[in-house]
Amino acid sequence: MTSQVRGAQLARLLGQWHALPGRRRSPDYAALAGAVRGLLADGRLPLGVRLPAERELAEALKISRTTVTAAYRELRESGHLASRRGAGSWTMLPGTHRVASTGLWTPLDDRDMIDLGVAALAAPPELLPAARAAAEDLPRYLGGAGYHPTGIIELREAVARGYTARGLPTSPDQIMVTNGTQHALDLVLRLALAPGGNVLVEAPSYPNALAALAARRARITTHGLAAEEPGWDADLLLGALRQSRPKLAYLIPDFQNPTGHLMPAPLREQVVATAHAVGTDLVVDESFVDLPLDGTVLPPPTASFDRHSRVVTIGGVSKPFWGGLRIGWVRASAPQVQRLAAARVGVDMASPVLDQLVAVHLLADAPTIVAARRIQLTAQRDALLAALARRLPEWRVTVPHGGVTLWAELDGPISSALARAAEEVGVRLAPGPRFGLDGTLERFLRLPFTLPAADLVEAVGRIAAVRYDLDRGGRSQWREPAVIA
Ligand SMILES: Cc1ncc(COP(=O)(O)O)c(C=O)c1O
């Protein structure tokens, strides 16, 4: 089950390892060990993978085997590698580095706090008229019992039309309406994954999806995304699927949360083909698909490459419209939808009819609403980028061309400490480790641009102030428990 990284793959991930900061003062083996530790801390190199044999890595890096032997020894001593004679060496993290990544991440009700922990917009002005129109429609449903386990037909038709318009022919019986995308994921996991099943996810990934997987006691394998475009490493991702043959892979190809990356069409096609070849089901989360920015053209939907019902797509109205509606959906084969609906009866029976009617009206108005969202998000993203460039110029950000989040690479492994300090000055942050497993990603921070520009600029000013205080040694404690329920 353990996956393995080949010499050439690790060499590519290591990149310019010999030219890293501080390099001049340290011998080759220490620099190599440091670079491997960096990849582990950033989640680019998953935990529990087998590293190449010393000779293979030495050849790939064109260095002496003695250097690799010494680097592996140092990694074993620092607790980053476990070796068994004849069997190889596996990556790990020292126990002290582990930070909980689980726990639910929910919005705060503290109105004085600038909440950058949540990546969702306030409701659009069209919401109230849509709710009024939905109330007018309601009498049409009042004569029935009101339970529609797959959703009301009007909404399933509207959602199916949306997929068809994107080049993915879909009939309403392939759609099941859920109470949000998160609920869709939970239902799909209940059906497709036995407790303890093996799942591949991106690192970083969406924290509440990781929480849903933890609830299924999934055994997780990660594919580390690079901060810079395109994020996914095709060779490593396909290799991970082939090696660990997970039961299921959960991917966010459209403006990935938190990195904002967009998976190119050829990789979508390869992922679907490889998943089919190794017997992996793909759960594709399209939460942000409606929010391309800068005129970005979307690749075909991932499911459009699927000929074998391997791909289950989940989506919803939270990102284009409003999270408070709690309307999402699953797109799958008609028989899968029937099985999901049967499973759902033991959970929540059905989604509220009134909210579904509101969603029908919003979807009818989607082009206008989404166009305004894009203009708003572009302006907010640019204000956030400008504030970061001004106040925190050492941080590196890849400009996302869609979605609602920036994934900032910080000037040190300070993300959790910074989040604690920021809370003291009224800014709530979701630190990097929230988006990974086992306490990695401390050099990263997700910054959503869903709040008004003035709030974002104010927040960056406060973050910059506490960032420089961190260097002066002030150490703050969480005011509240670190797990947010
Ligand atoms: C990738 C991803 N999936 C699912 C969700 C949850 O969406 P919903 O509000 O539709 O449950 C979010 C919300 O941030 C998300 O970013």
| Number of helices, where a helix is a run of at least 4 consecutive DSSP H or I residues | 16
Question: Which class do the helix and strand fractions yield?
Answer: alpha/beta
- Beta-strand percentage? 5-15%
Any idea what the radius of gyration is?
23 Å
The order of strands across the largest sheet is 4-10-9-8-7-5-6
For the biggest sheet, the summary is: 7 strands, mixed
Q: Give the strand tally.
A: 14
Low-confidence stretches are 96-102, 478-485
Mean pLDDT across all amino acids: 91
Helix and strand element order: HHHHEEEHHHEHEHEHEHEEEHHHEEHEEH
Overall shape: globular
Please report the distance between the alpha carbons of the first and last residues.
Answer: 33 Å
Can you tag this structure with a few keywords?
seven-stranded mixed β-sheet, alpha/beta, 13% strand, binds pyridoxal-5'-phosphate, 14 strands, 485 residues, five-stranded mixed β-sheet
Q: What can you tell me about this protein's structure?
A:
The chain has 485 residues and is α/β, with parallel strands linked by helices. The protein has 16 helices and 14 strands. It has a 7-stranded mixed β-sheet, sandwiched between helices. A 5-stranded mixed β-sheet has the order 3-13-14-12-11. The chain has a two-stranded antiparallel sheet with strand order 1-2. Helix 8 crosses helix 12. The longest helix has 26 residues. The protein is globular, with a radius of gyration of 23 Å. The C terminus is likely disordered. The structure holds pyridoxal-5'-phosphate. The site of pyridoxal-5'-phosphate has 15 residues, from helix 8.
